[in-house]
């Protein structure tokens, strides 16, 4: 049978484990998978673009498991009362192809994106980076803030959003975490001034420049989360040119990341190499480092693997008949044979 984890089940799992512990467990699983990067068969995601959004499929596999995620990105959705980012995905056994897990991934994606930000920040920011600036307080906001606080040692975050209600929502939700100081800024420049870490997490399908060169100070680490689609950026090209840039999977980030503004020859570095200890992150305390995050299938593989393990251990999620259960695998017609269909109808009645 296939285990089905819907949103209500995911909420139960998170409440049983604890939000911060769930985030930490997700980050640990992801670190493990980043360290064995070379054992994965990787592919840039397959995107279907429209003028206002994108729908993407993200497959990946290793020797044992195959995973995919369906995800969209529609910045205009917020004006229609629909989420900008929505997702679901599956995990299957490579030896038979049998899907063992079908899961919601909208909430899970916010956790996994935040875990990736924290992992990159831990690897690239200066030691003892306690102050962060964050621009964009939408659906991802709390997850990003909590991951920086709990996993990367950030004690104070200054936030800005063009939507006051989004900032106030973030402040309300983060009141549950009093060990983090949260300040609402009046402008992006105010949010960023004096910060060790800057995260941009806005949604606008255009060549935006949320962060401009005069806002960047020596030694800052920048996480660019919202520039994740062709024609959708957040960071001024001159900031990119001056920074040491780290990416998840270069062939995908060249198309989707903020580095789409640079020449294909501009050097970038693999985040996984730093996590695996093969390469150093920043060169010195004055260097500006930048994680050009777009979201890669490996992170969803880790998330699905983690959710499946918890659902199994906690006996959460429904076993569903996604695949026919056949006594004789050659007799698929049995499932729709008129006699069988009539019997099913009677059973249901
Ligand atoms: P959302 O629509 O819920 O929130 C986006 C927020 O950005 C809104 O509150 C909006 O008011 C604000 N904003 C837009 N333009 C702004 C500007 N110029 N200055 C300040 N704030 C501005 O979206 P979300 O789900 O929070 O996602 C945020 C972004 O992250 C999206 O672009 C999404 O595609 C991206 N994303 C990336 C990854 C990844 O792995 N890199 C994963 C998930 C989402």
Number of domains as seen in the coordinates: 2
Query: Which CATH class of the largest domain is shown?
Result: Alpha Beta
Q: What portion of residues belong to β-strands?
A: 15-25%
- CATH 2nd-level architecture of the largest domain: 3-Layer(aba) Sandwich
Q: CATH homologous superfamily of the largest domain - what is it?
A: NAD(P)-binding Rossmann-like Domain
User: What small molecules are bound in this structure?
Assistant: nicotinamide-adenine-dinucleotide
Percent helix: 25-40%
The residue ranges in which pLDDT falls below 50 over 5 or more consecutive positions are none
CATH topology of the largest domain: Rossmann fold
Structure description:
Helix content is 35%, strand content 23%. α2 crosses α3 (106-124). The chain has helices spanning 7-17, 19-35, 106-124, 141-152, 164-174, 188-192, 237-242, 250-256, 271-275, 297-313, 338-348; strands at 2-5, 46-49, 54-61, 65-73, 87-93, 99-104, 131-135, 156-160, 181-184, 197-200, 207-211, 221-224, 233-235, 244-247, 269-270, 289-292, 318-320. The chain is built from eleven helices and 17 strands. Strands 9-8-7-10-12-16-14-15 form an eight-stranded parallel β-sheet. A seven-stranded mixed β-sheet has the order 2-3-4-5-6-1-17. The protein folds into two domains: 2-107 and 299-324, ornithine cyclodeaminase, domain 1; 115-295, NAD(P)-binding Rossmann-like Domain (Rossmann fold, 3-Layer(aba) Sandwich). α5 links the parallel β8 and β9. The chain is of the alpha/beta class and 349 residues long. The longest helix is centred in the N-terminal third of the chain and has 19 residues, at 106-124. The mean pLDDT is 96. The chain binds nicotinamide-adenine-dinucleotide (NAD). Residues 73, 75, 78, 84-85, 109, 113, 135-140, 160-163, 166, 201-204, 208, 210, 225-226, 228, 293-295 line the site of nicotinamide-adenine-dinucleotide (NAD).
